[in-house]
Amino acid sequence: MSKTNSKQQLTSLLFSLLFACTSYAQQSINVSEAWVRIPPPGMQMMAGYGTFTNLTGNTIELVDAQSVSFESVGFHISEVVDGISSMRKLDSIILQPDEPAVFEPGSRHLMIYTLKYDTQPEGVQIDFIDKLGATHSVEFRFLKSAPE
Amino acid sequence: MKPPYLIGIAIVSAAIGVTSYQLGIQNQPKPLATKIATVLNPPRLMAESLLVQHDGTPFSNATMRDKWTLMFFGFTYCPDICPTTMQSLMNSVSKVEQAGIENVQVVFVSVDPERDTPERLREYLSHFNEDFIGVTGHLADIEEFTRSIGVVFAHHSPDETGYYAVDHSAVILVINEKGEMRGLFSAPYNWEDIADDLINIHG
Q1: Are residues B75 and B3 in the same domain?
Q2: Which long-range contacts link B139-148 to residues 24+ away (Cβ below 8 Å)?
Q3: How many domains is chain B partitioned into structurally?
Q4: Does residue B119 sit at the A interface (CB-CB below 8 Å)?
């Protein structure tokens, strides 16, 4: 076997692996009704919501979230305990198979800082990274309130 | 043996007592049947404050006279609970107005005066409803006002980005047209129940 053929085969194998990983990541999570609340003028903080469904038979732990459109994205939860509303950061989100994880106003949400564009786009992509390093990309729409 | 006239007096007195008691009960206001609101009977006077509205004018009990007020406490840098509540109040007020009640206003009292300047409050509230009133002031004055009505808040330490959250009472006060606290909504609440109860309490 020539050196060139070996290189081609290796490159082909790497691309196949990359494609397989991407396909796995794309199909392993579904987020329905994914939306980001349109922030009031001058406001740089916003929250994102949606229902995450793990389509695999294995537990997926999301450990990070990022987006080219925002300065940062994180996992947070709002709670009302004894009449007091508070918010705290979550280190990760565990998605069990067939157990949708709901992110909704007043509960778990994506804490999003600073849109990088001057004009607000209709939608943005947010990438979720799981504990194994796979990336799950989700499109979020900008809405003023929860989708009906 | 007691004379018969004493027994007669006792019977008449008892009858008068029972009748008076029954009349007393009838004269008491009937408790309002609400979905989620707690109604205060009697209404509670609101303390005066040294706070200011987002247009720079003083915020006082006079601001609340002749109107029914829904008062919420929060901060504009709150990304979840506060905008969700303001959105709910926007929908509630719309439903109440559709029911023919025009004298309802919403007051948002900031518990984060360092970031929530009057100008910032104006910008923030105009996103929901141009008529919503923002209230802010010196931290000590906000503390005094909230303490007087049983509302609490506490600032968190800033994170690595400098952002800090504020824990606060998740309550919406209902203040009547005399400037008295007439009731309250405790979380969780939804805009339809708020509207229905307000229509009921307003009468």
Answers
A1: no
A2: B139/B113, B139/B114, B141/B49, B141/B50, B141/B51, B142/B51, B142/B109, B142/B110, B142/B111, B142/B113, B144/B49, B144/B50, B145/B47, B145/B49, B145/B50, B145/B51, B145/B109, B146/B73, B146/B109, B146/B111, B148/B46, B148/B47
A3: 2
A4: no
pLDDT at A125: 98
Say which of B79, B124, B165 has its CB closest to residue A47.
B79
* Domain assignment of residue B61, given as a range: 31-202
Chain B, 69 to 88: residues with Cβ < 8 Å from chain A are 76-81, 83-84, 87
In this complex, do A83 and B171 lie within 8 Å of one another by their Cβ atoms?
A: yes
pLDDT at A48 over 70: yes
ipTM of model: 0.80
CATH number of the domain enclosing B44:
3.40.30.10
Residue of B nearest to A112 (CA): B79
Q: What is the pLDDT of residues B59-114, one digit of tens each?
A: 998 999 999 999 999 999 999 999 999 999 999 999 999 999 999 999 999 999 99
Contacts of A145 in chain B (CB under 8 A): 87
For the residues B174-183, what does the mean pLDDT come to? 96
Whether A61 maps to a domain, the answer reads: yes
CA B179, CA B201: separation in Å to the nearest integer?
Answer: 14
For residue B26, name the pLDDT band (cuts at 50, 70, 90). low
Q: Which residues in chain A are contacts of B125 at CB distance < 8 A?
A: 40
A–B interface: beta-carbon pairs under 8 A: 78
Is the per-residue pLDDT at B132 higher than 70?
yes
Q: Which residues of A touch B109 (CB under 8 A)?
A: none
Instruction: Categorize the per-residue pLDDT at B27 as very low, low, confident or very high, splitting at 50, 70 and 90.
Output: low
Structural domains counted in chain A: 1
Residue type at position A124: V
A57 and chain B in contact, CB less than 8 A? no
Are A47 and A37 in contact by the 8 Å Cβ rule? The answer is yes
Nearest-neighbour CA in chain A from B125: distance (Å): 8
B40 shares a domain with B23: no
Q: Indicate yes or no: CB of A106 within 8 angstroms of CB of B188.
A: yes
